[in-house]
């Protein structure tokens, strides 16, 4: 979905064109931050673009289409980094599509269904990120706890300093809160489907990456300079938590959507 040339947190901005030409579609556009694009086992892309840019309904202008990675005109231009990490071998890349022709059958669900598909798929995917982030935060806290009972400053173990205990206690509580919210969200998805669980999906998407970023940052601090190095898992985990606040849509967009959903319940 995401393109360097437009604000892609509003998916109606997407500019890549998907034009019907006989029994084929022709795709032109530039994408970036395409996760797994550089990976050698990635064989096919799902590309979102505009098939009907003049449609009065902005949510029916988009389509999604399957594009094999080896189709002529597809170029994986460069891998991208976040805070210096390339997340190899999966990675995130800039990808260009220049007069790429694929069979008309490759369109998913039908022309104009791109937005609908994006909404359906991204919900459960967000919860998977939350699960991994809870694991990352938990691991960082375990490292910090071990560190706190072995490292000494000013004649005492770190764990004997009140502020260190507070950081550990707060982190423990925040991880447990996030775990329960994610579990509740997953259960609601199972019971009523992703569409009707979108309030809790958004709540998880907003709170869990921020929780992980905060907890991992505290644990990094307790490790001194070493905490910022690759000798410990915190730096890479911090990068993951930080980019999850942007990937699948930035915090602000999810807050906007969730806020609207909630106040609508109180509108006469
Ligand atoms: C590591 C990583 C992996 C990614 N993987 C993928 C992928 O596989 N496929 C894909 O398509 N995309 C992917 N993305 C891209 C991601 O989905 C986009 O970055 C995101 O949707 C935001 O789009 P943008 O970068 O164009 O930011 P913009 O749309 O330009 O937004 C910039 C900023 O504007 C602010 N903003 C936007 N709307 C509002 C609002 N309503 N209220 C207040 N502030 C607002 C927010 O602070 C936002 O961060 C990935 C991103 C990262 C970092």
Outline the structure in words.
It is a single chain. The strands form 3 sheets. Strands 1-2-6-5 form a 4-stranded antiparallel β-sheet, with no helix packed on it. 43% of the residues lie in helices and 20% in strands. It has 2 domains: 11-106, Beta Barrel (Butyryl-CoA Dehydrogenase, subunit A, domain 2), CATH 2.40.110; 119-264, Up-down Bundle (Butyryl-CoA Dehydrogenase, subunit A, domain 3), CATH 1.20.140. The chain is built from 5 helices and 8 strands, in the order E-E-E-E-E-E-H-E-E-H-H-H-H. Strand 1 and strand 2 (24-35) form a beta hairpin. The model has no long low-confidence stretch (mean pLDDT 96). It has helices at residues 114-148, 162-192, 198-222, 234-244, 251-264; strands spanning 17-21, 24-35, 44-50, 62-68, 74-80, 92-103, 152-153, 156-157. It has 268 residues and is α+β, with helices and mostly antiparallel strands. The structure holds flavin-adenine dinucleotide (FAD).
Number of domains: 2
Count the helices. How many?
A: 5
Major sheet: arrangement of strands: 1-2-6-5
| CATH homologous superfamily designation of the largest domain | Butyryl-CoA Dehydrogenase, subunit A, domain 3
**CATH domain fold name of the largest domain:** Butyryl-CoA Dehydrogenase, subunit A, domain 3
If classified by CATH, what would the architecture of the largest domain be?
Up-down Bundle
Instruction: Encode the helix/strand succession as letters.
Output: EEEEEEHEEHHHH
Distance between the termini: 36 Å
What's the overall average pLDDT, rounded? Answer: 96
- Helix fraction? 40-55%
DSSP summary, beta strand count: 8
Main sheet overview:
4 strands, antiparallel
